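Why run this: before we spend reagent on co-expression, it is cheaper to look at a predicted model of the complex and decide which construct boundaries make sense. The entries below are exactly what would go into the expression plan.
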Amino acid sequence: MGKRTFSIGGVHPHDNKISRDCRIKPLAIPPTVYISMSQHIGAPAKPVVAVGDKVKVGQVVAEPGGFVSAFIHSSVSGTVKSIAPRADLAGNPVMTIEIAVEGDEWAEGIDRSETLVTAIPSDNKAIIEKIRLGGVVGLGGATFPTHVKLMPPPGSKCERVIINGCECEPYLTSDFRTLLEKGEQVVIGAAILRQVMGNVPCTIAIEENKPEAIVHIREVIAKLGYEGIEVMTMKMRYPQGGEKQLIDAVMGRQVGSGALPISVGAVVQNVATALAVYDAVQKNKPIIDNSVTVTGACAAQQANLLVRVGTPLRFILDAVGGVPESAAKIISGGPMMGRAVANLDAATVKGTGALLLLTEAETRRKPASACIRCGKCANACPMGLEPFLLNRLVKAGDMEALEENAIQDCIECGCCLYSCPANIPLLDNIRMGKGAVLGAIRARAAAAKAAAEAAKK
Amino acid sequence: MTNIVIWTIAIITVLGVLLALVLFLVAKKFKVEEDPRIDEVEKAMPGANCGGCGFAGCRAFAESAVKASDLEKHFCPVGGNDTMAKVAAILGFEVKAKAPQVAVIRCNGTCSARPKTNEYDGFPSCKVKAALYSGDTGCSFGCLGCGDCVEACQFGALSMDPETGLPVVDEEKCTACGACVKACPKLIIELRPKGPRGMREAVVCVNKDKGPVAKKACANACIGCGICVKTCTHDAIVMENNIAYIDPAKCKLCRECEAMCPTGAIHGVNFPKALDKEAVKARIAERKKKAAEAEAAAKAAEAEQSKKEEQ
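The model came back. Tokens follow.
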């Protein structure tokens, strides 16, 4: 089979994987961790510990605050110092549990040995419950609670599980290193996921710039002898790791506007999520740490680190030689979709995948000029939208036209901004319009619901 | 040749007259009866079509006002009391004069008082900036300084002061239409009564953080200490979420709170004399001393009274 990719749009930035040869090293435990209650999409978790409580590693400190929500566990052992709002990396206050570290005592029942557990339990319900209790969320970026994804709504059927090992964002290497160093665990995690979804075939999609990982995972699959799992080599293209793009690339099916991947029979999980599923199901180990890439041409040292959840960003950067003078911007995540860090005292969350240091020259925005109507943004948009049009409509404040032109389908990948020769801040404006339109849609739905209830009475 | 010219003119004239007749008849037959007062009211309006009254424009305001049973919900902030008196006269209503208002910027986080903690390199719009993060200073409540309010103002009453990085209101030009209030994503701008001869007091801070946090972020912040509430003898100041608020209806413009505020978060404007803080403080101390003496005297008298009764 030839190398596959998605059918519309996309760009090809230089991949800059300069930290690819750095093994994942465990980072020292910081003296204090700050565990956010909003580490996932959906309702924030509710703290179940009180100030002064002693907690162990892996102990539940917060329970789900709704259906789409997740358990949160202590990543260290120590004493709960405070439960109060604290500024996250954007400076916005988020409810946070502060834990002062004392030793490294783990909760009972967690298997910390290195032995590989290959036998998969047969009870699927028990597996999903274990994933739920392990606080597993999608680690590809959206942090959607995994157990919710594994329970498709009635009437829909999963036909293929896709494990996303594309890591199409430039600079990031934590998934690549995970594939190389924990390939067995990832494959077992994939086997668990395909069993839960009804023994459907499973594809591990890896981009062509990671040939070592492709060879290694193929060997692991052969060694472990699982059936129904294959590795697919993907052509390099951003945003291949986008859920809808990956389904298009792997299965040749396009997810409709506003529809969920399950509507075309696909469930997509990230490599790191597969590893977390393995840990939760086979080892009873909840998500208490994740691998974070620290990189950038100006960084003192390239590194892939295994970091406890809630470690302050400053602590991580200090451990790898501090912030160099030349660094003008620090981004949490990749250069395309990551968010600039406004507050280095913020702590990591489950979904933190990278800290990227960029220099002034690499990151400074060029002044915007007028649109020259070249249409590059429309060519680059992987969702088939017309960014130049949306930009204009946002400026005009035409909410109806924005909705008609499917602004809510925008995945904020940044391809339009990347491809614009006039440096127009397309995504900035579209993101604002998207928020306004989503608000209008929600308000309308709420009004319709209220009207229906009033009619009932 | 002359014939052709004469015929052309004649035909066109006849056609014109006929069509005019048709138009006249159609206009008569299909005439929409419209309240003539709508036109009158519209003429009395300032014609800015700013939407400050809550209607789409001056005509929409006039249409609604004509149908309304009173003018409770109709007020043109641009035209103010004069316009409303004219409208009321046309429609035969009585209207109470409203105090003229002005936009007040409730943030004094100047560049020097509120140091930057990071640099914003995104699109220069407060709305975009507010959606991305808490801002480029330690204060997550204050002015973002991209000038969305300036852009929203149709009357040119707002401008950015490059030295402070904050918007400035030109009181002469401000019509209190409220466009800036809606444009500000941080809800900093408030319409407040102009006050007698423009004199008014206001807390120019919206930081809801606790005192030390607010103070660290901005030297001019309201730290929620409550001294102003204790000082005020008119019960005009309330403290909520670590932020003081002066009720303009109750404020008697004594300026005692302004003198006592430890961070200078209370501003008085348009007063004829500069505030002599020491004098006001001395006055308050004197009053407190007298009150304490009076209380002591009353207590002594009471004790005497009870002693006498015992005897």
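Chain B has a mean pLDDT of 89. Chain B is about 40% helix and 10% strand. Bring this page to Monday's planning discussion.
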